[in-house]
Amino acid sequence: xxxxxxxxxxxxxxxxxxxxxxxxxxxxxxxxxxxxxxxxxxxxxxxxxxxxxxxxxxxxxxxxxxxxxxxxxxxxxxxxxxxxxxxxxxxxxxxxxxxxxxxxxxxxxxxxxxxxxxxxxxxxxxxxxxxxxxxxxxxxxxxxxxxxxxxxxxxxxxxx
Length: 160
Known about the structure:
Elements: H1 2-27, H2 34-48, E1 57-64, E2 69-76, E3 81-87, E4 91-98, E5 102-109, E6 114-119, E7 127-130, E8 132-138, H3 142-159
Antiparallel strand pairs: 1-2, 2-3, 3-6, 4-5, 5-8, 6-7
Helix pairs in contact: 2-3
């Protein structure tokens, strides 16, 4: 019996060293890399975007790109498309109006930095600029909103 305990005690420093090395390796790992922030931001935006049900919207695409552009493309049943885009370095403010269930995420720029275009519109194609992009959203808890704001500000700082 004594030999078994003695051999186990001799192995303990090795086990402790391995555990300590693993812990140190993990503790010096960067918190979150760009791709993780980008993936999380896109997941949050796509899960939260809540277009009005009566808008005859066929499909929509909302994405934050790896070159720090936020892009929204809406395609309607009769082919009309609306397109919005801006670089996050132009982001001035992120505000939210609503509750945990539904609301509007308002992204604003200091000047007319948001590209607004329409295609295949019976009234004619439009090319203009705006300072505000309103995104109807759902399930936006305060914690989720804070995380999204942090992500957008993180990419804004990277794009400068």
